[in-house]
C-alpha cells in the first residue's frame, strides 16, 4: 500500500498490468484517472506559485 502514495505507481502499474498480465482499459482506467488527478493538482500548485512570484516581482 505504501507504493500507492507515490505518483510513479500510477505511471508504472498500468504499464505492468498491460504488458505482463494482458490487462485492458477496464483494468487500468482507475490508475490513469488518479494519475490525471495528481497531474491536475500539481499544475494548479505550480500556477499558484507562478502567480505569487509574478506579483512579488511587480
Automatic annotation (TrEMBL):
The keyword Transmembrane helix applies. The chain crosses the membrane at residues 32-50. Keywords: Membrane, Transmembrane, Transmembrane helix. This is ABC-2 type transporter domain-containing protein. It comes from marine sediment metagenome.
Amino acid at each position: 500500500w505504501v507504493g500507492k502514495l507515490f505518483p510513479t505507481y500510477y505511471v508504472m502499474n498500468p504499464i505492468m498490468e498491460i504488458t505482463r498480465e494482458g490487462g485492458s482499459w477496464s483494468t487500468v482506467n482507475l490508475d490513469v484517472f488518479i494519475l490525471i488527478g495528481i497531474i491536475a493538482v500539481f499544475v494548479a500548485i505550480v500556477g499558484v506559485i507562478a502567480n505569487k512570484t509574478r506579483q512579488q516581482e511587480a
